[in-house]
Amino acid sequence: MAEVMEMLALSPTMEEGTLAEWTKAEGDSVAEGDILAEVETDKATMEMESFYSGTVLKLLAEPGQTVRVGDPLVIIGEEGEDISGLLSELGGGAKPAAKAKPEQAEPEEAEAAPEDTRESAPAAAEEAGNDDGRRIKASPLARKMAEDKGLDLASIEGSGPGGRIIKRDIESAKAAPAKATRAAAAAPSAELHAAAGISEVPGEQQPLSQMRKTIAKRLVEVWQSTPHFYLTMGIDMAAAMKVRKDINAQLAAAEAGYKVSVNDLIVKAAAAALAKYPAMNTGFAGDSLYAFDEVNIGVAVAIEDGLITPTVRNADQKALGAIAREVRELAGRARDKKLKPEEYSAHTFSISNLGMYDIDEFMAVINPPDAAILACGAVKQVPVVVDGELAVGTRMKLTLACDHRVVDGATGAEFLNELRRNLENPMLLLV
């Protein structure tokens, strides 16, 4: 019996994925656990395994197509099995959630008669919500045509079975009222574009990647819902830089194949401080706080499409060298989009370092479920006053962003002071 495999949620925050490549073709045999496709998620490019064994009977999406989680992706069954009935139930293999390419649209005569199998798909697959809470019945082709023509489905009366909107309804609909509705809804965006001069300058509108879509959505949600406050402190990094230089010289002599970075020192120092001040190692959940039992440090890594945060788990229990090796390995696979979901989730505190870009200081946005994020600037030689005398100092600025629902100013300040003690006395990190 043929089985439909749906788009899987390959990351904790994935809502839709872009099919990057099929690794199986129609007619190929497949076993349970075989890799079927590579899918671009909001975090990485992931391999999707088959849940079934048999023959690939039908691929329901094309490379480059975006498909929502839960929508059908491939049909697997016995070789030569008749799947016409199954395709009818799926609406001809096209789902309204998938962004089909124009050449994949059904031919015009496909909806000429109400009894067309494409018009008899289950209502659940053809309904979509409306602003007033009503459900709208429309075929996948009708939805695609309405979107292309800028029509509002809520303003169109369906002539298909059960009042379903079909192609001929779209063809006979007047676009003006729907365009007005769409223009009104897009007014704020249009005003912003006009104010910024975007509409006056030639350019190309570029689609967002799955990662950039998620970044945009989550950052807006966090910024609007989380009351941030910021604490900035200067750190004397002279001793830490000397210890780092000595460690790396010994690693080079031993041909260890890796170095300890400034960021590795910060991760280790922050982990030790979190273990001492567990009030910082918490999260906000609904109407309660959540105290984490592990100290897991998320390290922000810039990649081509945006930003991802690999997690160093139980960082307070790991030696500095182990942290250095793990961060290097995780960052490399993050840039290749090969991280596993468990490698970029479950962080309890985050660190974002722009020191390598010569940034003095900045304020970062908290990365849920964490209650705080540490923003690190560059280590620089600057003039300082020591015992009333002007001298050259080696300094770095750290800015701690805290969720005020969880952390108060005094708690954040105590944590920063402990972090400073760790970095200014780096031998403490080695014992």
Strand proportion, as a percent range, falls in: 15-25%
For the report, how would you describe the main beta sheet?
Answer: 7 strands, mixed
CATH class of the largest domain: Alpha Beta
Number of helices: 11
What's the CATH superfamily of the largest domain, by name? Chloramphenicol acetyltransferase-like domain
Radius of gyration: 27 Å
Q: How many E strands?
A: 21
Tell me the span between the first and last alpha carbons.
62 Å
Overall form: elongated
Estimated helix fraction: 25-40%
The helix/strand class is alpha+beta
- Unreliable stretches: 92-129, 176-188
CATH topology of the largest domain: Chloramphenicol Acetyltransferase
Architecture of the largest domain, CATH level 2? 2-Layer Sandwich
Mean pLDDT: 82
The total number of structural domains is 3
